[in-house]
Design goal:
With 93 residues, this protein is an all-beta fold. The protein has no helices and 8 strands. The strands form 2 sheets. It has a 6-stranded antiparallel beta sheet with strand order 1-8-4-5-6-7, with no helix packed on it. It has a two-stranded antiparallel ribbon with strand order 2-3.
Length: 93
């Protein structure tokens, strides 16, 4: 089963040493959520990964669990490029 994910873009405060407002995704799925992202003929299957605050990016981890970092790939998908993201039940088809 898949559900198409629609990101809500807006401004939110980001705190590092000071607080500033950045444009970003307000409803990012929780870390570990299985997803399938499609852009044209490119399909990426992975899980939502922890990433930086702000901007219109979805961080994706592809591959094994965190204990096997040498067998994983972590990438950032920019929503503005047109990625269609589906929340999945972990299926890879």
């Amino acid at each position: 089963m898949t559900i198409t994910y629609t990101p809500e873009i807006g401004e939110k405060p980001v705190t590092t040493t000071t607080t500033k407002i950045q444009r970003g995704i307000l409803n990012l799925p929780p870390v570990g959520t299985p997803i399938r992202a499609t852009l044209g003929d490119t399909v990426i299957v992975g899980t939502v990964a922890k990433g930086g605050e702000g901007f219109e990016l979805v961080n994706v981890q592809i591959g094994g669990p965190k204990s096997h970092w040498d067998h994983t790939l972590k990438i950032e998908l920019w929503i503005g490029a047109g990625w269609v993201i589906e929340l999945t039940d972990g299926a890879t088809s």
